[in-house]
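Have a close read of the entry that follows and walk me through the local backbone shapes. See right below:
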Amino acid sequence: FIARMGAEAVREVLAKIDFESMIGELQEQMLSTRSKQIKKKLSKRLKVVQGFIDSGARPEWMILEVLPVIPPDLRPLVPLEGGRFATSDLNDLYRRVINRNNRLKNLMQLKTPDVIIHNEKRMLQEAVDALFDNGRHGRAVTGAGNRPLKSLSDMLKGKQGRFRQNLLGKRVDYSGRSVIVIGPELKLH
């Protein structure tokens, strides 16, 4: 009996999925049931499996093994007076991931007990979670002045996010703006 835990175990399970046999099982179950609700659920699963096959993607690819790093222009260092630098929150979050990963690597080389290794892996996972979406799981990672650090998702979402601020916020010619108000003579009964 072998027991595993964490993302490695999930990745192993996902790698063992055989889509061809799963399609056969789902089609067989759809033919054998009369319930509309169950058929609807099975057809949704069948659509997902077919989507994986059509795209050529594998389910184990949903588990990250390599962490992408965005370009330095999107996480700038701003020089301040006195020779110091103001750093982007993303740099701090990336630094946390790198430090935890290096510490985990050193602990594994030193043949540290499994309990400590599992704890360090959990802390690395929390650092990666904070990088992608700070504050979503539990307490947010904070910077100077107990201010929550802005994660990748914070940089994208909202009015000040990358899409609305930079990509959609361009000035264009021949555009107008109007406000619709009701006419006082209209009867709204």
Summary: The mean pLDDT is 84. The radius of gyration is 25 Å. Residues 89-109 form the longest helix (21 residues). The helical segments are 7-15, 19-32, 36-55, 89-109, 114-133, 152-156, 162-167.
